[in-house]
Every structure is written in structure tokens, then in C-alpha cells.
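Quick one: C-alpha cells for this chain, please?
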Amino acid sequence: MTDFDVVTSRKSTASLKWDKYRDQDVLPFWVADMDFKLAEPIQRALEERVAHGVFGYTIAPDGMSEAVIAHLSNEYQWDVDPNWIVWLPGVVTGLAMSCRAFCNDGDDIVVNPPIYHHFYDSHEEDRHNIVRVPLCKIDGRWTYDMPAMESAFNDKTKLMMMCSPHNPTGTVFTPAELQSLAALCKKHNVIMVSDEIHCDLVIDKQATHYPTAAACPDMADNIVTIMSGSKTWNIAGLNCSFAIIKNQALRDKFQMAGQSIVPMVAPLAYEATMAAYRDGGEWRAELLDYLAANFDYLRTELGALPGLKVEPIQATYLAWVDATELGMDDTQGFFEKHGVGMSSGEQFGHAQYIRLNFACPRSTLVEGVERMKAALATLA
């Protein structure tokens, strides 16, 4: 049984998350990595590989593809051929490669704000056009505005980049929602790129993640799925991701777009990822329960505060908080001055929101919430 309440100091470890506020009394709840130690099987795999002592150029080790394929089959009933897998050092790398592989000068790429900010800047600005079609809220749940999507698609539309489960709104899309998107893309011969890095972080037990390519078999030849164990098992700093591309012609274009630019995956990254998918299931199940409890606490406490609305999420460890009623020009900056460092909604496309990473020991989260309460009390 993992004790996620244990506080592990990340100060003076060159942590991007914590060193942003080095020598400041600010608790970081911004970038999407967790403050939990590795699952024991991952730690053990890394130690065994380090003991070998040689770290040359490395290909995917024996059992790597099999571990991923077994996970996708067991979790999502998605049968993947090992030949479809392209190993990458990061999901964002895969987004950028997709833009370069599948778009020509003047082509449109559709994205749907609010969305992870790299969706706005993975394209080549002087060659491609980003078309923003905002999500809409139906019964308090963020989803696609299909009439607006249909209006946005035209002969210049070549790529749709999506995030499923969605960051930052936490939506887990239904098969019907995915199939509506796929039908639109198929009609216009548009390639779908589905970032599914949060697929293993569904905390709502009533929700089920469906890989876009599995939910939309008629469109599977025109779907690029990008995944990683990095968020779920807290190994983002090791840099191992993968694309799943059934269509060989698309796969060849995709790989060519990274030639001489994209580095190989490092040996420790492979080992950690293989151990995560092969032996990290029990740790993940415990993690999901802990995250769900953290989110329940957060909704209860922040939901009682004037001016803040913690929106329901189905997946991720990222709370999407509507601070519109506070009427501030810089909500993130206000809370930062009071010792709580969150992400501004502006970078996702909604300036009046803030995003809060609650993947931390409960005591850290409690301290952050108390600081937010104290900050709002100064307004009174």
C-alpha cells in the first residue's frame, strides 16, 4: 500500500515545478507533474539498469511494445499491432511532428480552446494557420460545439488536434462524441491527432476512456494517437512517449518529419515506461483513489469560497476553476502574491480561469487551500 501522504521535498532538485518559486514562499500547483515518489517496480527497474553502467544509443528493449500493447488491450480492448508504434521523447514532439508531416503552406489546423497551450504553438507559424473553435458547455460539461466545427472546416482544413481526456477541462469524451468528430473529419479528409496522455488518469468511476482510433474504426487509418505513461506514473522528466499510427503511409510521413531533429528515447526512459505498464497497475489504482479524494476535498473547500467555482472533472489531476466572479485582470498573479502558484487560464484560452494541480500530498493541498482562503479574505 502506497502512502501518498508522505511529503518528499523537491527543493534544490532542479525541479521545474518547484524552482520556479525558488527562495519564495509560494507553493507550486501549476505544471502537470506530481509530488509523489515512483512506484516501487519503476524504482527497481531504474536501479537495475543503472547498475549495468553503460548507456549508449538505445532501441526499444525486448518486452517494451508487448507491455504497452497488453495495457491497451486490457484497459481499452484496443488491439494494436507493434508495427504501428513510433517511439518518441515526448507528446508535444508528436504534435509538432504531425503539423510538419501532414500540413503544407497555408493549411488550417483546428484546435478547441480552452486547451493545453502547446496545441497553439506546435505548428509552424509562417506556414500553417491555427483555427480556434471553442468548446461549449452542455449541462456543465465541456464538449465539442459540432455546428461550429462544421462551419470551421473547409478545403484548407488538413488537421484536427484534440486532447482526450481533455486538458484542462477534464472531460472524458463518449464514443458518440468521438464518432461525430471522426465523421466530420472523414467527410473533409482531415487527419485527427489525438493526444491521450491523460487516458490512464480517469478519476470518475462512472466515466470510461475510449481511444479515439478504437472508438472510430472507420476513421482509424487517418488517426494519429499519442500516448505516454509520463503523467500517470510521474516519469515525465525521463521523456518516453509513443505514437500509434495504423496507416503505414501516414506513419512514414510522420517519422520523416522527425528525421535528424527528434532524438532517440533514452535507455532509462524505456525501462521506467516498461515497468510502469507491466508492473505499475496496483500503484496506479491506489493513486486514482487518492486523487479522487483530493479533488473531492478541493471542490468542497474552494466551492464554499465566494468568487470561485471548481468545475467537475472526469479525468486528470488538474482542477479547472472559474474565477470570473472575482472580476480580476490577473487572478493567477493575485493568488501567487499570497503564496499559491497556479496556472493562468489565459494560456489555455480562458483568461478568467485558473488551473490547479492537486497531485500532491493532502497536507500540501490543505496548506494551499488555506492560503487561498486567506487571500480572498483580504478582499473583504
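The domain at 16-40+281-377 is CATH 3.90.1150.10 (Aspartate Aminotransferase, domain 1).
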